[in-house]
Amino acid sequence: MKIAVASDHAGYELKEEIKESLANAGHEVLDCGTASGDVRVDYPDWGFKAADAVASHKAERGILVCGTGIGMSIVANKVKGIRAALCHDHFTAVMSRRHNDANILVLGARVLGSDVAEDMVKAWLAEPFEGGRHCFRLEKISAYENENSNSREAASGGGRTVVIDHPLVRHKLGLMRNKETSSKDFRDLVQEVAGLMVYEVTRHLPLEEVEIETPVAKTRVFTISGKKLAIVPVLRAGLGMVEGILKLVPNAKVGHIGLYRDPDTLKPVDYYCKLPCDISEREIFVVDPMLATGGSAAAAVSHIKDRGGKKVSLVSLLAAPEGIAAFHEAHPDVDIYTAAVDSHLNDHGYIVPGLGDAGDRLFGTK
């Protein structure tokens, strides 16, 4: 498991002990700072880094340490998608996972001894989420977050992972997952979900006021401020998303990138690339239903950047944590928009639980 850790000066010594314990247990550690216990620092500077790493799926979980743990827990819970639990013993650490699905554990270095902290970390990492009635409660928290998104996300310069979990999107995604859904219905659902996702993907587009005349009177209305857009599907499965997006932004130009995944190496192999000649002047949405290993999506974005593309976002119906991490490592400046982040990849590189091979289901080839 990849775990982001961070502390202020008061928590530095305990953080270092936890890092060593995690490494010895076979975990990958992403140290977000601080780098010394001798220099006084401000805990928000380090807490936000680790919380952002977890929220963007660059790390699967996080552990934060300060003097009491209170400051770090306040910081982490300001970040959308974070459920940080300040725990004081084995029981609270276990329950924070079992009932709250906490993705960040917060510890107070001046409250806990090293042995107790190490025991809590082991228990917290091993304990599964119970689900059941607790899912409904966590969904209420997510709904509130989505309705009151914080300014940190809006001000981000790139590299976010934005999960679009509107009830209609979740409902239609559930229908798509069902193996009994026909190819025709699957194609319709892909277009519908892609269209619904456009609302969030284009939320940042600038507007300007213009004067028009209605059948009754003159008035001023808003229009998109001369923004040039391009949609670039990754062939072949990405084609299924294009029409749903074009219904909302019909003036966007469409490019195509041909990639397939080698079944043995799971590496992308490219065979075609055709982009609008003014791609450098456009905001580009790369569309690919499945972000699995991340290889094809990363290669597609590299092709676009090599040809002058600057502002790029990736739009996928489903993503796996492994793919998100690999993609962000390759393109830390590119946002990912997805309808869901699933559990993991299986031995064949398929997303679990996923929805199967999107291309085969779209075109009825398997």
TrEMBL record:
Q: In which pathway does it act?
A: Pyrimidine metabolism; UMP biosynthesis via salvage pathway; UMP from uracil: step 1/1
Task: Offer a single GO CC term for the protein.
Answer: cytoplasm
What one GO molecular function would you report for this record?
A: intramolecular oxidoreductase activity, interconverting aldoses and ketoses
Activity modulation notes? Allosterically activated by GTP.
EC number(s) on file: 2.4.2.9
Q: Which reaction does it catalyse?
A: UMP + diphosphate = 5-phospho-alpha-D-ribose 1-diphosphate + uracil
Q: How is the cofactor bound?
A: Binds 1 Mg(2+) ion per subunit. The magnesium is bound as Mg-PRPP.
What keywords is this UniProt entry annotated with? Allosteric enzyme, Glycosyltransferase, GTP-binding, Isomerase, Magnesium, Nucleotide-binding, Transferase
Domain Phosphoribosyltransferase as annotated: residue spans: 163-365
State whether keyword GTP-binding applies.
Answer: yes
Question: Which GO BP terms, alphabetically?
Answer: carbohydrate metabolic process; UMP salvage; uracil salvage
Cofactor(s) in the UniProt record: Mg(2+)
Binding of 5-phospho-alpha-D-ribose 1-diphosphate, residues = 236, 261, 288-296, 357
Q: Specify which residues bind uracil according to the UniProt entry for this protein.
A: 351, 356-358
Q: Which InterPro entries match?
A: PRTase-like (IPR029057), PRTase_dom (IPR000836), RpiB (IPR004785), RpiB_LacA_LacB (IPR003500), RpiB_LacA_LacB_sf (IPR036569), SPI_LacAB/RpiB (IPR051812), Upp_B (IPR034332), UPRT (IPR005765)
Top-level enzyme category? transferase
Q: Which family is it part of?
A: Belongs to the UPRTase family.
Instruction: Quote the HAMAP family the UniProt record gives.
Output: Upp_B
Q: What job does the chain carry out? A: Catalyzes the conversion of uracil and 5-phospho-alpha-D-ribose 1-diphosphate (PRPP) to UMP and diphosphate.
Q: What is this protein called?
A: Uracil phosphoribosyltransferase
Q: Name the species this protein comes from.
A: Cloacibacillus porcorum
Gene name per UniProt = upp
